[in-house]
Design goal:
The protein is an alpha/beta fold. The protein contains nine helices and twelve strands. The structure holds NADP nicotinamide-adenine-dinucleotide phosphate.
Length: about 300
């Protein structure tokens, strides 16, 4: 299968490239400068010239706090840009996979969120991603929206890399302990996306394979528990270590409000697509092995 992934340097895009051969896929990453979601006029033309069997949108305006200051910029990429891509996929007659987020929810439910729970984003980023979901659904029926959460990987910027960096010169780090979610390896997510892509391509008429699905690492943790596990594994591997001081969200004010409960119930994905991502703790060690190796030159 020929997969076009939008977003060249992002965590998920790079993970899709790394996992392509495992899934016998030919994967082409497209991103800035040649394809800019903020410049929609050229998108359909570029995609038509490129071809492909399926398009995955892994590009987004992901600066959650900065989006509060420039909601229009977030919306241009995450809503209009996503909708334009989905329209181009429809014009090409190919399925479209959109990445979305736990931040479409306000986190007030006392259980993991299911796909049909009421959405209510707390900030500009979440609102722009929700508008993106709606724009994609309006542009093409042949779509899958994958809501994911708390992505980490050896690539780009993420919580695991930030923890290792901070531990280089701090003995103790204060981390929020009252937000719960599912740490998700971008490499596991990439495997899951290829699985969904194959199902869509092999079953072009199957409506139940289309629509919204949650796809996140298996199991839950608070940010503080996630950080504790990072340092437990890092110390075992000879990497940096710091103690964790649990904080409440109120102790750590940020421009964008975040949901306290970011847990995603992924049962629908397993029931319909036959896909379940690995337990998040199991995927952390291979990522840390790479990152610690990079830092120490091992
Ligand atoms: N990271 C998370 O924890 C998380 C959680 C839930 C959902 N998600 C969603 O998962 C998806 C992938 O996230 P990620 O962590 O892989 O993101 P990421 O590492 O921040 O990468 C985002 C990519 O989008 C590209 N991009 C931004 N604006 C663009 C534009 N105008 N035109 C073209 N490309 C543009 C960036 O390109 P440049 O390199 O040129 O800046 C970057 O390569 C996104 O849809 C995100 O909303 C992420």
């Amino acid at each position: 299968m020929h997969i076009i992934v939008i977003g060249k340097e992002g965590q998920v895009a790079r993970a899709m490239a790394e996992r392509a051969s495992t899934h016998r896929a030919e994967t082409l990453l497209l991103g800035r400068p040649e394809l800019d979601l903020g410049e929609p006029s050229a998108i359909e033309d570029i995609l038509r010239r490129t071809g492909g069997d399926l398009i995955v949108n892994a590009a987004a305006y992901t600066a959650v706090d900065q989006a509060e200051a420039e909601p229009g910029a977030a919306e241009a990429v995450n809503a209009s840009g996503a909708g334009t891509l989905a329209g181009a996929a429809r014009a090409m007659g190919v399925p479209f996979i959109q990445l979305s987020t736990d931040y479409v929810f306000d986190g007030t439910l006392p259980r993991p969120y299911r796909e049909d729970d009421a959405v209510h984003p707390l900030g500009a980023y979440g609102r722009s991603k929700l508008l993106g979901e709606q724009a994609v659904a309006a542009a093409t029926d042949d779509h899958v929206i994958l809501r994911t959460a708390w992505i980490y990987s050896p690539f780009g910027r993420n919580f695991v890399k930030t923890m290792l960096r901070l531990a280089a010169d701090r003995d103790e780090i204060g981390i929020v302990a009252d937000q719960i979610g599912s740490p998700t390896s971008a490499l596991d997510l990439a495997d899951g996306i290829y699985g969904v892509a194959r199902n869509l391509l092999e079953n072009p008429q199957e409506g139940r394979l289309r629509g919204i699905f949650n796809m996140a690492g298996n199991g839950f943790a608070s940010w503080a528990e996630f950080a504790s596990e990072i340092f437990a594994v890092s110390a075992r591997l000879g990497g940096p270590f710091a103690r964790i001081r649990p904080l409440s969200t109120a102790d750590y004010p940020t421009p964008a409000k975040r949901p306290g409960n970011s847990r995603l119930d992924c049962a629908k994905l397993e029931a319909i697509h036959g896909i379940r991502l690995p337990v998040w703790r199991a995927s952390l060690e291979p990522c840390l092995l790479r990152l610690i190796g990079e830092v120490s030159g091992r």
